[in-house]
Automatic annotation (TrEMBL):
NAD-dependent epimerase/dehydratase domain segment(s): 3-224
Protein name listed in UniProt: NarL family transcriptional regulator
SUPFAM superfamilies named among the record's database cross-references: NAD(P)-binding Rossmann-fold domains
InterPro entries according to UniProt: Epimerase_deHydtase, NAD(P)-bd_dom_sf
Lineage: Bacteria, Bacillati, Actinomycetota, Actinomycetes, Kitasatosporales
Family that this chain belongs to: Belongs to the NAD(P)-dependent epimerase/dehydratase family.
Amino acid sequence: MRILVLGATGYLGTHIAEHLRAQPDARVLVAGRSPAADVTVDLAADQPRDLAAALAEAAPDAVVNCAGATGGDAVTLAEVNARGPAVLCAALREAAPGARLVHLGSAAEYGPTEPGVRVTESAPTRPAGPYGATKLAGTAAVTASGLDAVVLRVGNPVGPGAPPTGLPGRVARLLADAGDDPDAELRLGDLSAHRDFVDARDLAWAVQLAVAAAAPLPPVLNIGGGDARPVRNLIRALADAARFQGRIVEAAGAAGSARSAQVAWQCSDITAARDALGWTPTRTLDASVADLWAAARPVEGVRAR
């Protein structure tokens, strides 16, 4: 099976491409802006006809779209998260209409939800800002495309390689910088929100199952941990893994995510993914955090930069 992965050099794409390469019947092709990519594409700028030509040459049996932007202004988010999937679907309809498309969406598409409730795929979508809104637009483009396609609506990913643009990766870097200084202080924003964390490697397994599934899949499947955990617990577990001796201060005005502040509770019902894919998460949050720190901690004798 020829599997074309877009965004394979990003955090989630790296895990997904690595997992797919480990499958005995898979040949993974990487698509992106890098000249080193097997297929050179730019979803934010390419015209559908140009992308279709590249896809026709690659002749994929399946396409996995991990490309996306989590930060930046509204124009950047729209170009990558909304225009990108629309262009990809248009190109696939022309060049490879029989290929299965697995697209990564986001639980941010749901927006604020009722505390204590696990949201299903049929729940109303009321994104709280441009990120969730542009991801929802991408989901709409995929589900209305007429292709053999599924959107995996991903919770809050965590695990090794988490980038500093997200809270887990940013705190891991701060902890690495702090080292064993007992007077170190981590000033963070409000950590009281509850989030549904999922290990990036469990997500990669869900992608592999979605690529290989024989039957048509539901248009959207939630991929999360299935349980809401206080963000404060994740930060404390990460600090414990780092043996941090300093103080963690939740300070008003400290750096934090405005998007996260608007959503106090987020938890996905993952029953449909279990039924359609035979998938359930296998890694605990503690294991994910421990592996995140193991990958982020500085080499002995070398100060993190």
